[in-house]
Design a protein that fits this description.
With 310 residues, the chain is an alpha/beta fold. The chain is built from 13 helices and eight strands. The chain has a single domain, classed as Aldolase class I (TIM Barrel). Helix 2 packs parallel to helix 13, helix 8 crosses helix 9 and helix 11 crosses helix 13. The structure holds ligand TD3 and zinc ion.
Length: 310
């Protein structure tokens, strides 16, 4: 199957109440580990790259790898998506280079500016058959939870979400309900505002919802990093049960980067700790690729419910 947009997979996800994993890639082992898991699970999958990942790998290398992945796995839908596009030019570059989906992240602008800039990207992308994810609301940082009214102001406002989607024509919407990027999402108990998600779904039932900052920060992977010489104390993510609830409550796309970084790092650290004489890259990159595959398999099969939904 050639690379596809997210349109059909999102429609199925909303109808059948499951979420599709969107996994960040910047090298061959990540691409291979993720698509092998998706193919085995017969799951749709979104590969995504940020602008810094594109700079790291080079857009031609990245697209070439992703195209080979799609050719090798013709039975599952694979989309290639720009994560957190910062401006029109970056979004345009990705559209022009064969990305099937782009995110324009205007969440740092005020509402009107976010609408205006998002609409520009939507108009261009749609003219080329590419879909657009937009963002409204600000992802929380752990320090933002101190003051309830201040953190309340950062969550996505459901009535604004309705107006935003109407005015921009965006295809999917990333919302803020308490998640945040990275390995330190919560100080105490993990808490997501499912009440806000519900209100948003009531206002825009046909718009696929996206959850950023949604890694579990899998304790076994954190322990693996720490056991073999790492130093990542007190890391905490979104528990699998909450991600499962999100998946059956109208969230169509769940972004995962931190868990992949932990898997890759943990596996490599383990090889080096157990065999200081290792210096063949295949000796540490194969276990890393295997653990990426295992991690993605777990999410598709046990958490997001996307297995057998290709
Ligand atoms: O957009 N992304 C990936 C890039 C963020 C840097 O980690 C996400 O929403 C993934 O968030 P998470 O929870 O994996 O950090
Ligand atoms: Zn994100």
């Amino acid at each position: 199957m050639p690379l596809v947009t997210t349109k059909a997979m999102f429609e199925k996800s909303m109808k059948e109440k499951f979420a599709i994993g969107a996994f960040n890639v910047n090298n061959m082992e990540l691409v291979q580990g993720i698509v092998e898991a998706a193919a085995e699970q017969n799951s749709p999958v979104i590969l995504q790259a940020s602008s810094s990942a594109i700079k790291y790998a080079g857009i031609d290398y990245l697209m070439a790898m992703v195209k080979v992945a799609a050719e090798e796995h013709p039975n599952i839908p694979i989309a290639i998506h720009l994560d957190h596009g910062p401006d029109f030019e970056t979004c345009k570059m990705c559209v022009d280079n064969g990305f099937t989906s782009v995110m324009f992240d205007g969440s740092k602008y005020d509402f009107e500016e976010n609408v205006r800039l998002t609409k520009e990207v939507v108009d261009y992308a749609h003219s080329k058959g590419v879909v657009v994810e937009a963002e409204l609301g600000k992802l929380a940082g752990i320090e933002d939870d101190v003051n309830v009214s201040a953190s309340d102001a950062m969550y996505t406002d459901p009535s604004q979400a309705e107006e935003f989607v109407k005015r921009t024509g965006c295809d999917s919407l990333a919302i803020a309900i308490g998640t945040s990027h990275g390995a330190y999402k919560f100080k105490g108990e993990a808490k997501l505002r499912f009440d806000i998600l519900k209100q948003i779904k009531e206002r825009i039932p046909n718009t696929p919802i996206v959850l950023h900052g949604a890694s579990t920060v899998i304790p076994e992977l954190v322990n693996m990093c720490n056991q073999y010489g790492g130093n990542i104390p007190g890391a905490k993510g979104v528990p699998d049960e909450m991600l499962h609830e999100a998946s059956i409550s109208g969230v169509s796309k769940i972004n995962v980067d931190t868990d992949l970084r932990l898997a890759m790092t943990g596996a490599i650290r383990k090889v080096f700790a157990e065999d200081p004489s290792a210096f063949d890259p295949r000796k540490y990159l194969k276990p890393a690729r295997d653990l990426i595959k295992e991690t993605v398999t777990h999410k598709m099969r046990d958490v997001f419910g996307s297995a057998n939904k290709a």
